[in-house]
Amino acid sequence: MRVPFRKMHGLGNDFVVLDARKSALALPVDSIRQVGDRHRGVGFDQLVTLERAEDADVFIRFHNSDGSEAGACGNGTRCAASLVLDELGRDFITIRTPGGQLSAERLPGGIFRVDMGPPRLGWADVPLAREMDTLHVPVSAEGVSDAACLSMGNPHATFFVPDLDALDIPRIGPALEHDPLFPRRANIGFVQVMAPDHLKLVVWERGAGLTLACGSGACAALVNARRRGLVGARATVTVPGGDLVIEQREDGHVLMSGPVATAFTGEIELG
Question: Residue 271: is its pLDDT beyond 70?
């Protein structure tokens, strides 16, 4: 089956977007991996599929490049939301994802903002393997320790470090992702606090590895830094691909703002 796709990115975090609202698509793991292969396929960090939703404007599903399904993807949500906003000619939509109900809006200057909902801070919400304080989780690797953990619809562990450049993230990232404390694995964020309103972040993404940006990881970084008293309610989060603006409202909801772009369109073979 040949289906049309759109290749998009949010600050370099790239996606293949498929539309399954009119006709369901078969997405076996082998097909996802083949499309995600950057040498033999199109290549992506996540595959994003638009589906019908009875209680929202759209349902968005995410798969990592290794074929596993992800509960949330901030940059992917923002990219897909921009398409639906343009299609409907509106400035606000509601979104259903495996991680929960979200919303998105168009801002001036080509910026799109997604309400990622409130973080989940309980140990079973992350989830962790056993009960513990999620603000200080005893997991470590060379050069990092004392993670702060939460769920943004997907599991995140955030490490605060004095110098990001001193870390060998491609080496320690996989070990941390698969640590026994994370029964469903975890997205691993490494954060350097630059100022009370500025964080620098690199994420080793569960099922995808190093990416140029991670929207849910940026949300987790802001919330965990705020829990530690390191930043206020709003900060610029600089990722390798650029800047995201993250804000936590008084009701706990986390808002993520940033640009989106379409790289190209085409057709791919599925099944």
Answer: no
Mean pLDDT calculated for residue range 147-166: 97
Instruction: Write out the catalytic residue numbers.
Output: 73, 214
Q: Where in the chain is CATH 3.10.310.10?
A: 2-117+258-269, 148-252
Asked if residues 76 and 15 have their Cβ atoms less than 8 Å apart, the reply is yes
Range scoring the smallest mean pLDDT among 39-43, 89-93, 118-122, 266-270 = 266-270
CATH class of the domain defined by 148-252: alpha beta
CA–centroid distance for 117 within its chain = 13
CATH superfamily of 2-117+258-269: Diaminopimelate Epimerase; Chain A, domain 1 (3.10.310.10)
Please name the helix (run of DSSP H) or strand (run of DSSP E) that holds residue 204, with its range, or none: strand 198-205
pTM: 0.94
